[in-house]
Amino acid sequence: MAIGQTPLDHLARNMANLKKVRSQLWIKAANTDQVRKLVVKLNTEFQLGRFNTDAEGIKLSDIGGDYSPVTLVLSQKKGRPKLGADRINLRDTGRFWESFFVNITSKGIEITADTIKDGEDLRDDWGPNIIGLTDESLDIVSKKILENYRNEVRKALGL
Fold first, then answer.
1. CA-to-CA distance for 1 and 96, rounded, in angstroms?
2. Which residues pair with 120 in a beta bridge?
3. pLDDT by residue (tens digit) across 37-88?
4. What element of type H or E holds 123?
5. HSE of 128, CA atoms in CB hemisphere, 13 A
6. By C-alpha distance, which of 97, 91, 92 is closest to 78?
7. How far is 67 from 92, CA to CA, in rounded Å?
8. Rounded to an integer, what is the distance from CA 88 to the centroid of its chain?
9. pLDDT at 147
10. Are the C-beta atoms of residues 71 and 91 closer than 8 Å to each other?
11. Which helix (H) or strand (E) holds 43?
12. pTM value?
């Protein structure tokens, strides 16, 4: 085997190159469809849907109050019954949840959604933190990105 062509030499070159591309690998690890879908799922299905909370972990019913008796009756008639007056999930028609979009850059994760329903901004009643992740959700996303980063480092090192 020629000098400089051993597997150890190859690994050493890849490690030196790794320092140059480290930040690019973080972005690549984070900027995947899998991570974007996870962010949306955590914000909508888990925080809003299952736990009925905003990004600060505050119950939506504590912010904007319970569903009115009229809303409960109308939802039942529309075939979309509510689980309870205090189980605010902001999923009446599904349009709000479906509007979530995640943009991942070198500066971080940005979550946006269309909060306008029937001409009114949902944030006026339920607060600005209906879009965003709780600390627990951020931990889950961070672990997924770290897993992806490890895979990217292995590829960069040729392992």
1. 62
2. 117
3. 999 999 999 999 999 999 999 999 999 988 888 888 888 888 888 888 899 9
4. helix 122-126
5. 0
6. 92
7. 11
8. 19
9. 97
10. no
11. none
12. 0.85
